[in-house]
Amino acid sequence: MGVNLEDAKWYVLHTYSGYENMVKENLEMVFAKNGKKDRLLEITIPLEDVVEEKNGKRKIVQRRMFPCYVIIKMVYDNSMWHMIVNTRGVTGFVGPMGRPIPLTDEEVKRMHLETRTVETDFKVGDKVSVVEGPLEGFVGDIESIDALAGKCKVIVSMFGRLMPVELALNQITLIENL
């Protein structure tokens, strides 16, 4: 009896502060050691780009969207609860009484956890405007496109310099040539 990967759902784990990366590595080892690696699809620590200013200089840095949380996609069964919550750095599942409740499809979509292939009319060299995120309002040229990941690299003029930034395709819109 094999594991049906179609049954995989996203769950949220609470961790100690700063332990997110360690928890990810530990969970991968624990799943492998217990023969459950076929049930684990993905462990993610969502990051976001933010503009940070230090000493009068601005730069784009990646920051955890949800500090103290790790999001895991797996085919869960009750026999795995102790294995997961006893992993070093994990304080428990996010759910009533520490019991795992899978994220809804709407939550998964809103958190950008799954990327779906996006049909795109964008081409390298197109002039685009950023319509969502920390760079909203910036204008730039597309340097490269990764349709499978639903992302592109756009060169924007920021603080007098041309900078490449990676954006999701749903964060940009084409500027029509007049």
Please describe what this structure looks like:
By secondary structure, the protein is mainly β. The chain contains 3 helices and 11 strands. It has helices spanning 20-33, 81-85, 105-110, and strands at 9-15, 40-44, 47-54, 57-64, 69-74, 90-93, 127-130, 139-146, 151-158, 161-168, 172-174. The chain has a 5-stranded antiparallel sheet, with no helix packed on it. It has a 4-stranded antiparallel sheet with strand order 2-5-1-6, with helices on one face. Strands 3-4 form a two-stranded antiparallel sheet. The protein starts with 8 loop residues before the first strand and ends with a strand. The model has no long low-confidence stretch (mean pLDDT 88).
Task: Describe this protein with a few key phrases.
178 residues, 4-stranded antiparallel β-sheet, 3 helices, 5-stranded antiparallel β-sheet, mainly beta, 14% helix
